[in-house]
Amino acid sequence: MQLNELRPGLEFVLCGQTGPVHAPVFHMSVEVNGKEFKGSGSTKKSAKSKAAEMALKSFIQFPNSSDAYFAMGKFVTADDFTADVSDPQTGFSPFEGNAGDKLASPENSTPTEELRKPQPQNQTQHKNPLMMLNEMRPGLHYKLESEEGQSHSKLFVMSVNVEGTDYKGQARNKKLAKARAAQAVLSAVYNIHPSFQPGYEPIPNSAEPMQAHLELADHIHGLIFNKFNELTAHGNSQYSRRKVLAGIVMTVNGDYSKSQVISVTTGTKCINGEYMSDQGLALNDCHAEILSRRCLMKFLYSQLKLHLGNRSDHSIFEQYEGGGGFRLKDGYSFHLYISTSPCGDARIFSPHEKGPAEDNKNGLGDKHPNRKTRGQLRTKIESGEGTIPVKSAPIIQTWDGVMEGERLLTMSCSDKILRWNILGIQGALLSHFIEPIYLSSIVLGSLYHASHLLRAVHMRLVGIENVHPPFFLNKPLLSGISNTESRQPGKAPNFSVNWMLGEDGLEVTNTTTGKNENGNPSRICKSSLYTHFKELYGRLPSIVPLSDEPIPTYQVAKEMVEDFVRLKYEMMATLEKAGYGMWVKKPLEQDMFV
Ligand SMILES: [Zn+2]
Predict the structure, then answer these.
(1) Per-residue pLDDT tens for 438-462?
(2) What is the pLDDT of residues 459-509, one digit of tens each?
(3) Annotated catalytic sites, by residue?
(4) What are the extents of the domains in the chain?
(5) Long-range contacts made by residues 206-212, C-beta under 8 angstroms, separation at least 24?
């Protein structure tokens, strides 16, 4: 029994019996924390059950789990991550990490000692409203009401009848739809609402209800996850091994049935300095989200190419009226999914540590309001994982220095995403033809922490000046997902994979050499993207005036986009002024190829 599991040793007392002998009604009571709760039923067992339910109902009408726990006499708070059974790594989930966990999990049947034991990773999957409701109201029957859409964009509606009322839930899979129906019952009948732990709520970019943002986040995750499974033979391929999975989804006018996966990538490592290419043939940075963005750039080139033929109707771009260049047609949006928080500033926090909001609530204040580590630009280290803060003095990386064994430094993913939120995700070369494209959302599969992600990906640049249209400081939707990803055990592989719309299979690259399995340049290396640029340059209308002479190098092609370059320096100056350190650039020789 539920109550007994939470408070073992409670005494139920038979306080009376009424009704005729052939149909007796038993009355039981139980005292919890000095309050008496009564229940009646045709058997002693059912009367006891009712009394327990009444007691439970009264506890769980607290706004948050810690209040309920204090009421239960259990001094375990939601803020105390070390004592929490939910995986602190997962951080966020609307159906987890709240009262539901503790009240529902049969594993929590013993007192505090048991709660403090580390729990298996996959346990979070089992803690949901469905289990909670099942323990309170066993034997409920869930019905599939409808099933709509095609494979990737299915919508299931499940219903459950409680006390004569149908409660419904809808989602892209039956399990989630069922959980949402159960949640509807918990809200309506038991006054238990899904709640977010402070710091883990989505940060919206529009006025839509929270549920809509979560649905979008789950939709993005579902598409990327399914595509990756499909590409790796449902986990049977050796290339399904990964630490971080990322991908970009394009949505059209919010119509989920039209959503398309643009890229799916994995990877967590950077090139070994001695393999750097001065021909643009090696991938320096094989972190999953960085590769996904490269795939997107290749996709954007392919969409521009449609304007060379007579296929502009099929392109996501339209030409400016009376001007050079192109812009996205209305309704197209891009969403980045990363299975965990991007390395660097967004990941420099302890999920075990209270954030300022929680501290303030307890009257403690942030112990480290001006922590030096907050907001710092950080670099990935050569061949390894993780990041280190940039030095306060400028770092000039030189080609010969790196060749001689100086550690090659690459800006962290948090810093690169920050850059995309001011300069756009398209980069300098594409800016010859198109206006900046910004991410509409960033969805994290785990380790989502709203305030840290917010600071990392755009708040660090709030003071930026001289930003002129079409550029602006982009503030995408930031969100976790409902079914948080568990951490990927094992060592990080030395390969990364990429797939993009329009290509058949996965390309596998060696993260140490930055080349593909066969030692050839990747389809998304600088040189490959530059080839696409050269195919379009001079043939498509452009925003940047054409040069009179042939473009000598890749570097010059980038520097021709003056507005972009100017804003890039403005960004770096803003970060430096704010005390976040100096952006570290790659050796100049990298970009001198033709
Ligand atoms: Zn990274």
Answers:
(1) 999 999 999 999 889 999 999 999 9
(2) 999 999 999 999 999 999 999 988 788 777 788 999 999 999 999 899 999
(3) 289
(4) 210-352+372-591
(5) 206/477
Question: Token pair 């070390």 is at which residue?
Answer: 82
The CA distances from residue 65 to 81, 193, 340, 527, in Å, are 13, 11, 26, 55
Q: Long-range contacts for 570-578 (Cβ within 8 Å, ≥24 apart)?
A: 570/464, 570/465, 570/466, 570/467, 571/419, 571/422, 571/423, 571/461, 571/464, 574/461, 574/463, 574/464, 574/465, 575/377, 575/460, 575/461, 577/463, 578/375, 578/460, 578/463
- Note the maximum CA span of the chain: 105
Residue 214: which H helix or E strand, with range? helix 210-231
Cα 287 to ligand 1 centroid, rounded to whole Å: 5
Q: How confident is the model over 297-310, as pLDDT tens digits? A: 999 999 999 999 88
Write the pLDDT tens digit of every residue in 378-428.
Answer: 999 887 788 999 987 788 899 999 999 889 999 999 999 999 999 999 999
How far, in Å, is the centroid of ligand 1 from the Cα of 411? 9
481 CA to centre of ligand 1 in angstroms: 20
Rg for the chain, CA atoms, rounded: 28
